[in-house]
């Protein structure tokens, strides 16, 4: 991919180098440019808000989850990209368009690669300080590649060594013009190596929740092991993460029985919220469930009615589940939807998409269930559920291993509906024998009540690279 297609964006700094020149002339810092030299310069690179709020439109996975439905007039009034993602079309972007989910991630990848490669030679600071900054960059690079691999690489399976994924880019050279796709195995090995290195260096207590911590790296490594089907290894990392939670910032599960009370701390109102949205939940830098604070704006959880919750997914909630208060049967400011049973998400308006404590508990519960520790899985599930509904309703009475694993998947839908997590689950479950034969569909209802069903085909568990990228890289293979 040519650099103009990848759109490596210099977020905070640009190195301009000159050779064979006198210091009195060309080695003067150019005006309008911040040239990273000192360790503090590299430290400050982490403080860009664009690295915490990843826009534009890091939301493709929201539209591809099978808990999503759409109805008219909202579907027909949607953008072409939205319709194509919802239909799981082969082509998502016009020939002249960039893939926004790719460009959003590549912008911040440039910065983390720059820190990782250059900070060891920075002026000032100790070797330990430099190593910590590099480890923070490696954690974030692994997080970026987790997303890229789930967009453009096949789910991890026995063919990972030959399945193509995303190019591995480790430098910050904006003039680089040739890229080749790595295999899924190579990308997963790359993420694991980065995280293992980061874990050995990162502190338990980060500067704040936007910066890397040991627990965040351990939790992300555990998640990657789950996506590789390595549940024993994943369980070890989740246990480590929960033992290494930061003590200098408040990290814990919110009790929705408190935060989502009527006219309570998060601003939910049984009168106004169904017509508008719930805005009281803190943003990522202050959100106590975040271990690594990253977020994207989710238009489908406030103004937009394009992506709605299916009646089938809505039926997974019990009436006492406080998470239901984040849904409404009404479009923004309007009457009830014409299709019975569908719900609009009405908050929060951003999706925590970094490393979050609720998922840590759910993934650890899954690892325990997969390794036949049913009682341990029950404990983790109930830890989360008692913070989402009255304690009397949070009890899980399941003793069968398969039933427990399937219940955990339902709990993941309840916790993360219309926030994009389901798409990643669908991908990994597509190569899981326990879920073999599952058919994923989307249903669109037009203005006359006629339903059209779109069925996900195996090829579309991955996105195709846009034509703009392929034209710049004629030797690179695209996904089918």
Would you kindly provide a written description of the structure presented here, covering whatever features stand out?
Helix 5 packs antiparallel against helix 6, helix 9 crosses helix 12 and helix 12 packs antiparallel against helix 14. It contains 16 helices and ten strands. It has 480 residues and is of the alpha+beta class. It has a four-stranded mixed sheet. The radius of gyration is 23 Å and the shape is globular.
**Could you state the order of secondary-structure elements as H and E?**
HHHEHHHHHHHEEEHEEEEHHHHEEH
Beta-sheet strand percentage? 5-15%
User: What level of helicity do the residues show?
Assistant: 25-40%
Total of DSSP H or I helical runs spanning 4+ residues: 16
Spatial arrangement of strands, main beta sheet:
4-1-9-10
Rg, Å, rounded? 23 Å
Tertiary shape: globular
Strand segment tally: 10
Q: How does the major sheet shape up? A: 4 strands, mixed
Oligomeric category:
single chain
Q: Write down the overall mean pLDDT.
A: 91
Please give the alpha-carbon distance between the first and last residues. Answer: 18 Å
